[in-house]
């Protein structure tokens, strides 16, 4: 999702369906304010959460919303789907139709899913340069061996995308259960990595994204707003 930051004059041209000359005059008249302050500068940068007024008229007043959901299996990580229930259908949040997903989970995966209407925040979270760690608990059909640890740490080449995965950490928890930490999120990455060992994933649960940990008081299908501390983890 692209961040919606841009120049105030462009925003006003669009919003008021008028041309730049008229917008310049409006600005010079001192009738436009952003976040409570009069702005006369055409180049002023605004985003989707800037509070913009023209005289007494409110042109834009959006509140950023950040939400965590304990995604159950069998629910699709999309905003619309013709076949399955979507994660949006589960949210008990007024702004739910404005939210987008920051890091999808497969239909049969469960665990921490983050949703927001703040594209700058979700872009930072998903940016490859930020290398935000995602921790998964993975249940496998067959027993794990020490070989997996080295293979995940070394990275695996995927010819389809012509990429080598970033070093990933694998900790063997029990015979058939591992904890895997990824700093990226390629398509079906964990299933494909275990696929190299012909070891099918039978359960995949995301425990955390960066410092945001799935709240263990949330049953599958339940969600809550993020705390301000959790929101501030990503910047
Ligand atoms: N890797 C997968 O294969 N599936 C997920 O849902 C998440 C990571």
Q: SSE string, helix = H, strand = E? A: EHHEEEEEEHEEHEHEEEEHEEEH
Give the distance, in angstroms, between the N- and C-terminal Cα atoms.
16 Å
Query: Overall 3D geometry?
Result: elongated
Q: How large is the count of helical segments?
A: 7
Whole-number count of domains: 2
In terms of per-residue confidence, which ranges show pLDDT below 50 for 5 or more consecutive residues?
none
**DSSP strand count:** 17
Helicity, in percent?
Answer: 10-25%
Which range does the strand content fall in?
Answer: 25-35%
Average pLDDT score: 94
Rg result: 22 Å
**Full CATH superfamily name of the largest domain:** Pseudouridine synthase
Q: Based on helices, strands and strand pairing, what is the structural class?
A: alpha+beta
The CATH class designation of the largest domain is Alpha Beta
Sketch the major β-sheet: 9 strands, mixed
Pfam family, one: PseudoU_synth_2
GO molecular function, one term: 16S rRNA pseudouridine(516) synthase activity
Family: Belongs to the pseudouridine synthase RsuA family.
Keywords: Isomerase, RNA-binding
Describe the model.
This protein is α+β, with helices and mostly antiparallel strands. It folds into two domains: 55 residues, RNA-binding S4 domain (Structural Genomics Hypothetical 15.5 Kd Protein In mrcA-pckA Intergenic Region, Chain A, Roll), CATH 3.10.290; 167 residues, Pseudouridine synthase. It contains seven helices and 17 strands. The strands form four sheets. Strands 7, 8, 9, 10, 13, 14, 15, 16 and 17 form a nine-stranded mixed beta sheet that branches. A four-stranded antiparallel beta sheet has the order 3-2-5-6, with no helix packed on it. Helix 1 crosses helix 2. The mean pLDDT is 94. Bound molecules: uracil. The site of uracil has 8 residues, from helix 6. Uracil binds next to helix 6. One of its GO terms (molecular function) is RNA binding. Its EC number is 5.4.99.-. It is an enzyme of class 5 (isomerase). This is Pseudouridine synthase. Responsible for synthesis of pseudouridine from uracil-516 in 16S ribosomal RNA.
């Amino acid at each position: 999702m692209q961040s919606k930051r841009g120049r105030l004059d462009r925003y006003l041209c669009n919003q008021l369906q008028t041309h730049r000359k008229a917008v310049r005059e409006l600005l010079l008249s001192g009738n436009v304010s952003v976040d409570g302050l009069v702005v006369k500068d055409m180049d002023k940068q605004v985003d989707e959460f800037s509070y913009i007024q023209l005289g007494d008229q409110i042109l834009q007043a959006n509140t950023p919303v950040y939400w965590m959901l304990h995604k159950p299996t069998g629910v699709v990580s999309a905003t619309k789907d013709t076949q399955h229930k979507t994660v949006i259908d589960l949210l008990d949040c007024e702004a739910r139709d404005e939210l987008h997903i920051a890091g999808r989970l497969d239909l049969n995966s469960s665990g921490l899913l983050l949703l927001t209407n703040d594209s700058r925040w979700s872009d930072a979270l998903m940016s490859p340069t930020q290398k935000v760690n995602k921790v998964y608990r993975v249940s496998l059909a067959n027993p794990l061996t020490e070989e997996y640890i080295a293979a995940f740490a070394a990275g695996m080449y995927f010819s389809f995308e012509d990429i080598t995965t970033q070093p990933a950490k694998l900790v063997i928890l029990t015979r058939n259960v591992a904890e895997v930490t990824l700093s990226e999120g390629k398509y079906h990455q964990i299933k494909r990595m275990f696929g190299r060992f012909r070891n099918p994933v039978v359960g995949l649960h995301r425990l955390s994204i960066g410092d945001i940990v799935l709240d263990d008081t949330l049953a599958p299908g339940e969600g809550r707003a993020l705390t301000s501390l959790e929101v501030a983890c990503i910047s």
